[in-house]
Design goal:
With 147 residues, the chain is an alpha+beta fold. The chain is built from four helices and three strands, in the order ααααβββ.
């Protein structure tokens, strides 16, 4: 009985057991940090591109309509062309699809980015697909007091 009690209370090898149990958890956490950071960086780059494209395109107002009615509306053809040109010049290599829709009161730029993984390829996850969008609204001059 005494031998069993000594064997049970013996602490030798406890660090090895802790290491074997916690090492895989630490490796997965490291992978999440590496892949998560890279994916977030590429997501923000794609998001910034479509938001900026929409903002740039929203400045293309229909001047003739403004002169005739004093209403600010978007020149849809010019705005779409400007947005597409902006996306083509500034997109990252991971932004694979874009779609632009223009209405008189707003332009929307959608994009789809396929972001490759680094660590999670081990588990069969080779890429993450994210959808990003940005909107721009045409305006001219001062709309409210204090602007």
């Amino acid at each position: 009985m005494r031998r069993l009690k000594n064997w049970w209370s013996d602490q030798r090898g406890a660090y090895l057991v802790h290491f074997v149990l916690l090492f895989p958890v630490a490796v997965v956490m490291l992978g999440l940090v590496i892949d998560g950071g890279f994916m977030y960086q590429q997501y923000r780059a794609a998001q910034t591109t479509v938001e900026a494209a929409a903002q740039v395109a929203s400045h293309e107002i229909d001047v003739n309509h403004f002169r005739a009615t004093n209403q600010v509306v978007l020149d849809r053809g010019a705005a779409t062309a400007i947005a597409q040109q902006f996306v083509n010049l500034n997109k990252s290599k991971y932004l694979v699809k874009t779609r632009i829709t223009a209405q008189p009161d707003r332009i929307t730029v959608w994009g789809q980015a396929k972001i490759p993984t680094i660590f999670f390829k081990i588990f069969g996850v080779s890429e993450l697909v994210v959808t990003v969008s940005g909107q721009g609204y045409p305006a001219f001059g001062i709309n409210r007091e204090g602007e």
